[in-house]
């Protein structure tokens, strides 16, 4: 019974619509015929490419205008490492052509070291030791996040990075993060990746690594 009532109602609506259409003027009919169909209007938007098209779009240029030292100098969280680089006489080296990959500890990372460690390393007589610690955080080449992740994958879950100091770091993927383990078993987590400079890339880490 409900179906019969619904059918009658629909037929009535169709009949009413037909009467209204007959009552329109010829001008309105002409305009209606020349107006774009509603189905045609959104065709362009609906056909907007996705997926592969997005990969082909130009990437945003995130490269900084300065060298790695200049990029680090602009960060309020890296004043300690910048001071250390200056004290070790490495400014000219890290301003060179490179490219270099720098794992830069934050000020908070240096604060985690035993009391007096930083002050001791900054003394003139400890320049060689300081240089060794800093260059242990530098890898030759432009090892961005994608490259490092691929190296870890190719290595079956870990990758060995040879530092400018001559020692090695072990990189691993851990719960969506990349970690670095030094020769003494200390582990640092990459907290910010791919801060690009004109001569390489910086990855921010939360722990100072020791050779």
UniProtKB/TrEMBL annotation:
Q: Which InterPro entries does its entry note?
A: Adhesion/Biosynth-related, FAS1_dom_sf, FAS1_domain
- Signal peptide, first to last residue: 1-17
Q: Where is the FAS1 domain?
A: 65-209
- Gene3D superfamilies with a match to the protein in the record: FAS1 domain
Q: From what superkingdom does this record's organism come?
A: Bacteria
UniProt keywords (A-Z) are: Signal
Question: What Pfam families does UniProt report for this protein, alphabetically?
Answer: Fasciclin
UniProt cross-references to PANTHER family, sorted A to Z: FI19380P1 (PTHR10900:SF77), PERIOSTIN-RELATED (PTHR10900)
- Name the chain's protein: Fasciclin domain-containing protein
Q: Which organism is it from?
A: Luteimonas rhizosphaericola
